[in-house]
Amino acid sequence: MRRTIVAAYGGLVYVLFLITFLYTIGFLAGLPGLKTIDSGTAGGLARAVIIDLILLGVFAVQHSAMARQGFKRRWTRIIPGPIERSTYVLASTAAVALLIWQWRPIGARVWTVENPAGWWALTIVFWASWAVLLLSTFLIDHFSLFGLRQVYCEWRRQPVPEPVFKTPVFYRLVRHPIYCGFIGAFWAVPRMTVGRLLFALAATAYILIGASLEERDLVAQFGDLYRRYQRQVPMLVPHPSLARRNAAQVAGDSRI
After folding, report:
1. Which partner for 232 in 66, 163, 236, 246 could form a disulfide, CB atoms 3.0-4.6 Å apart?
2. pTM (2 decimals)?
């Protein structure tokens, strides 16, 4: 019964995450029929800025603090190990859902791209960024990232495989292609409003901080293997020539 409950919990959390993730894309894309980043009533500029920054801060603190190894060691004294990752995903999903629900738009325009070629270029980059982001999760271990592998192993009474270090495809261009996908999706928009700019600036700043914290954890976990990877491949800005030169060196490596 316990194993069935664990598996059901992990599966339900993943479904909730997937729904929220897809809604987030629509929220940023401004798809009709959805609550979007530029829809709704702000209720005053100062009030909107304060509320939006609080919402972004809630997500940043939750998402970063719960990912640290020290927190995980204490957290798993309360939460069973097999559902630790699913619980983290659930908390992150709730923080994103709260942000979307309570977000206050600030509709003043910063820029608008009227040229059809420019509009299409930015739109293609926007959707390509989401594709890179999603594909990058599968290139490493999508099911472990979102807790499914852990609950499945518990259900099958199997040990969870040890994380390995690998650098497939996009990971030979940058160390954090998932973050690159987010940054592209935040900034590659034909119509930038003040509210969207506030979101993009705050979220990008958090990504830079979060990437640095994650790098510390990866160095602690993989040691010299990850330090060599840091020297070979840039963090967020791709350099294709450097990636080609290092492809043969990192091809046999393993990544979490």
Report:
1. 246
2. 0.88
